[in-house]
Amino acid sequence: MHMPRVYCAEPLSVGERELPGEAARHVQVLRLQPGDALTLFDGRGGEWAARVTRMGRSEVVVQVGECVPLEREAARAVHLIVGMPANERMDWLVEKATELGVASIQPVLTARSVLKLEGDRAAKRQARWQAIAVAACEQCGRNRVPAVAAPLALQAALRDVGPGGRVLLSLRAGSRPLRDVAGDASTVWVLHGPEGGLAPQEEDAAIAAGFAPVHLGARVLRSETAAIAALALLGSS
Fold it and tell me: Which segments in the chain show pLDDT lower than 50?
């Protein structure tokens, strides 16, 4: 039987402890009972074997065993800078990118973005996407949760890019195959636009910021499909 995996937002250590709110609710939803085993992880690496010792109406107490230093992270850190697709496609992208080992996701607002998020709406959507990433880690076995950042304007996101290779998924003439450009870089930042792609001036700004235009082959992919294909091609699973 597959052992349930539950994310704990607070640091774990050996001993008996009460689980924080979301973790406790998850255990209750799973209908676990005293004596049942589960695996806990706190997103900082490794996982803990645990056993439920007490269930209350709103509290769950577990006995936490030794940490097992098990990692299932990708050999290459791939950071996605995403022109947010509309409707539920961004939810799907976050889930599948997490399963494939993405290191982080930065949603961006672009000239052609259909999904426009600001203020409370942006904060609520970010929280939703982060929760989707947590659930995907619980399902797929990852012990480190990728950060899903708050939406930024594209120019602000370009200024925040860290060290590593930089590639821009592009249909412009002269773009090269993704694998050829990424090479053996241990960290890669992948930028791609929303439905309709980035505007020409946005691509120019990205190239000026050090992003090399690349393609994924002869077919034109949906925005969210392109991101997942890039992760797979970069060997991040």
Answer: 237
Q: What angle do CA 29, 30, 34 make, to 5 degrees?
A: 110
CA dist., res. 210 & res. 124, Å (int): 32
Q: Please give the structure tokens belonging to residue 30.
A: 């799973």
Q: Coil, strand or helix: which one is 64?
A: strand
Q: Which helix (H) or strand (E) holds 22?
A: helix 21-29
Q: Mind listing the pLDDT tens digit for each residue in 126-182?
A: 999 999 999 999 999 999 999 999 999 999 999 999 999 999 999 888 899 998 999
Name the pTM for this structure: 0.92
CATH 2.30.130.40 applies to domain 5-68: no
DSSP helix/strand/coil, 63 = strand
Q: For domain 77-233, give the CATH superfamily.
A: SPOUT methyltransferase, trefoil knot domain (3.40.1280.10)
